[in-house]
Design goal:
The structure is a homodimer. Chain A is mainly alpha-helical and about 500 residues long. Helix content of chain A is about 65%, strand content about 0%.
Chain lengths: ~500, ~500
């Protein structure tokens, strides 16, 4: 067996363990009985350790070192080089961190998440503060081990968005913030409530919603032979190669389930579009968190909340839910696209969403540049909410304590959500030019060409290309927030009579 | 850390991996999409190998060797000695077999099971024969590596029923067969069809059955905080310490689901009754397959198919299923206890069940004693069916091809099913003497005292005592089939007017 084949074998073994870990996590969030958490945690910790040991073993190191030699590289084709690049990246991000520190990170995260849950419940920032301090301190230490381009924060951005840096994000976010604020201000000034009362005072049978969502995911191209739809408190998608599962939540009060469904289906179509030859291969993965999010946001917003999609969907919805019988597609469309300042990120509309992210990025950067102390985050958060959205949360549970990420030590993750929206806008702009009559196809409920375009141009390439390269290949230029801005202006101008 | 603590740590690590493997298996049989089998198989193989490596590692060997030294044993209490005994047993059963042979067994089993499925579908014995030959050959080889008391078959019996040998089983089965045949002959001669037409021509809503079964398991003492009930084609129980899951199947045509439910609940109560301090401990497991089966058969038959239980359950059933409104508890009780010769073991009644097992034991023993060749199994099967039950399967799918066990290489497993029935009868005889008014409690739907008796006297001891020792402790004597015979005569005499 060649050294390259050794690497592929290690990669497959790692993926075999990871798939088991993913199933344990999926089960924990969908089916696991409440009393089973202890055994589950221990099994997850055991498999995580086996994964870590295999990835950072001396054997892996030898293989990686060998394959990175000039002489070895000389014989490789593009795919092989990319595979070695990504495997090396995964290896180094783990190998460079001392085992003791990894263990401490895991312990600190467990404690911090538990403290965060209590703190959020009681809306008591002080309960969480010591854990936030510890996490920031640890993550600064980790950054030094991993290494970075310009500044420690880059080491973490690179985990979720390989190739990105704080500086690059700042450059993109700065004009984006200004433009988003100005759109939001214009909209809020209108004091309009567009659309009809499609949900108010009505009930939507949850079992019917489930059946409808199950049907809808199939219509969008989700493959149930390699997946299933379950309930979860916080919807998520679990990609396990030939087994890609989506989850959704339902409320009797509204039909928001439709949009979490299209969101998760977008994630799932990415996972199901990865080439099956590359299951377990270093390249058989998504490019980045931002690229993953671009697919979910595209199906959720660019498709799912478009006029054309609602024209297609509304008659089906009205057939199913009699309480919509006096409503119109137009009224429904406008209603689901209302823009409002909200405290909570996950409830934010398309216009304000990236402002929520910009705020978090400002804070994380401040923490890592030692310009903000952890104890100041609550106040800075409130001031920034005032600045960006003209509202101030009275309650830390609706402010600095709302997200799980910091308690889990996931600094550098938030920007990917915003980048996802930007990628989606820029790519959608391109593909609308390439797919003849896309809007008509959507009105007809025909998503094949769109799905195939994404599959051929993005999904099938796994992570062979880095994000910046892929964006260039797809759209002919680097990432630019103006597509996002243009899209919002085009869409919300008519809705808000601007 | 002492060597003994090292052993406990290894045991816990093994259990952590095993729990993950069990979840993968549970999911595969309940929720997994059909297209996910390949990835699942690979993950299972990976974890199995990690398990095997850990169990047979040089570190484990060193710990085991050390703890088996006289000097080490001298300092141990009873529990510690038992823990070392069981851990040593698990270790040796794996360590003694060469890695190459283990790999071959796995490959042969995969092929044989796939061939068996096809062979059964086409009812073509010849398709399966070469795989049966291979399995017998391999298992004879394995027996030599593992070692045995008197003869090679003992090495395999010992896996499922530690401490048992072919000779011991023969001694128990011989009078059992004779007595069962004589009861069966008497019953068949009566040509009676006791009870009422409770199922014939009726439909029983499957959703209602599921709700009813969910309720019933809870009534019997099953703890949903540490478990859940799902559908499966072949019902099974998966015990994962603080997470013990049961499954069941339902037919619109009858209420057999009630008895598969009581059966699986019996298994689950054993698992849920294991001491939580011993999760991951070498002693934190069932005594043997036969003991496990004794618990399921006790709840299925001694409780579930008793007159008292039906007196308790029937009014509830009739409330739920209106098609039973003209039936009586008495008529229902007799109907579900009809005795008939059947080709298929899993459909057999209490009277004929152990004859199905005796037949398989005869065949396995013949194969391992070189008295029967694999190619003769079909004919010997037919002759024995004729001898024991006076029926001859025309179709190998209803004869020698009906069970999965041989394709999976599980020789030595079948006797445990019969032993389970014998243990159940003997233990139930004891506990009826110790629990005042047990029959009245069952009529009242009060199962607490029974559940607690089993928990305190059996479940809580894990596998501290071997089967023979436990039987002696519980009943004051060794295993004796006459309790099974007495029970059947007492029960079926009145039903068949004998």
């Amino acid at each position: 067996m060649s050294t390259y084949e050794d690497m592929l074998e290690i990669s497959e073994q790692l993926r075999n363990i990871q798939r088991a870990l993913y199933l344990l996590a999926w089960d924990e969030r969908t089916h696991m009985p409440e009393g089973a958490i202890e055994g589950r945690s221990e099994s997850k910790a055991e498999l995580s350790q086996l994964y870590h040991k295999k990835l950072t073993s001396e054997k892996t190191k030898k293989v990686i070192d060998e394959l990175n030699k000039e002489s070895a590289q000389a014989d490789m084709d593009e795919v092989q080089k990319a595979a070695v690049r990504e495997m090396t990246r995964d290896f180094e991000r783990r190998y460079k961190i001392p085992d003791e520190l990894i263990k401490e990170m895991s312990k600190v995260s467990t404690k911090a998440q538990s403290a965060w849950e209590k703190a959020r419940e009681k809306s008591d920032f002080e309960l969480f503060l010591p854990h936030l301090e510890k996490q920031v301190e640890l993550k600064k230490e980790v950054a030094e081990y991993i290494g970075y381009e310009n500044e420690p924060y880059d080491a973490h951005v690179d985990e979720y968005e390989p190739g990105f840096t704080a500086e690059k994000i700042e450059r993109i976010f700065k004009p984006m913030k200004k433009n988003l604020s100005s759109i939001a201000t214009e909209i809020f000034a209108k004091e309009l409530e567009p659309g009809e009362d499609v949900f108010e005072g009505k009930k939507f049978d949850v079992e019917k919603q489930k059946k409808f969502c199950e049907w809808l995911a199939g219509e969008l191209g989700y493959d149930y032979k390699h997946g299933r739809l379950d309930d979860a408190v916080h919807p998520f998608t679990m990609g396990m190669d030939d087994d890609v599962r989506i989850t959704n939540r339902y409320s009797e009060e509204n039909l928001n389930s439709l949009f979490s469904l299209t969101h998760e289906t977008g994630h799932a179509l990415y996972e199901q579009g990865l080439p099956s030859d590359w299951y377990g291969h270093p390249l058989g993965q998504r490019i980045s968190m931002g690229y993953h999010e671009s697919q979910s946001r595209m199906w959720e917003n660019f498709v799912g909340r478009s006029k054309e999609f609602i024209d297609y969907l509304f008659p089906e919805l009205r057939d199913e839910f009699s309480s919509l019988e006096e409503n119109t597609a137009e009224g429904f469309y406008k209603r689901i696209n209302r823009v409002k300042p909200t405290f909570i990120r996950v409830e934010a509309d398309e216009v304000t969403y990236n402002l929520h992210i910009a705020l978090r990025f400002d804070l994380e950067l401040g923490l890592f540049r030692d310009e903000i102390e952890p104890e100041e985050t609550k106040t800075v958060w409130e001031n920034k909410m005032d600045e960006y959205l003209d509202i101030v949360p009275e309650d830390p549970a609706e402010g600095v304590l709302q997200d799980i990420h910091w308690s889990a030590g996931q600094f550098g993750y938030f920007p990917s959500y915003a980048l996802g929206n930007l990628y989606a806008a820029q790519i959608y702009d391109t593909l609308e030019g390439e797919i003849d009559g896309l809007r008509d196809q959507i009105v007809q409920g025909n998503f094949d060409e769109l799905k195939n375009w994404l599959r051929e141009n993005i999904h099938q390439h796994g992570r062979k290309h880095k994000a910046a390269e892929m964006t260039k290949r797809l759209t002919g230029e680097g990432l630019d927030a103006r597509y996002h801005i243009d899209y919002l202006e085009d869409k919300y101008g008519p809705i808000y009579e601007i």
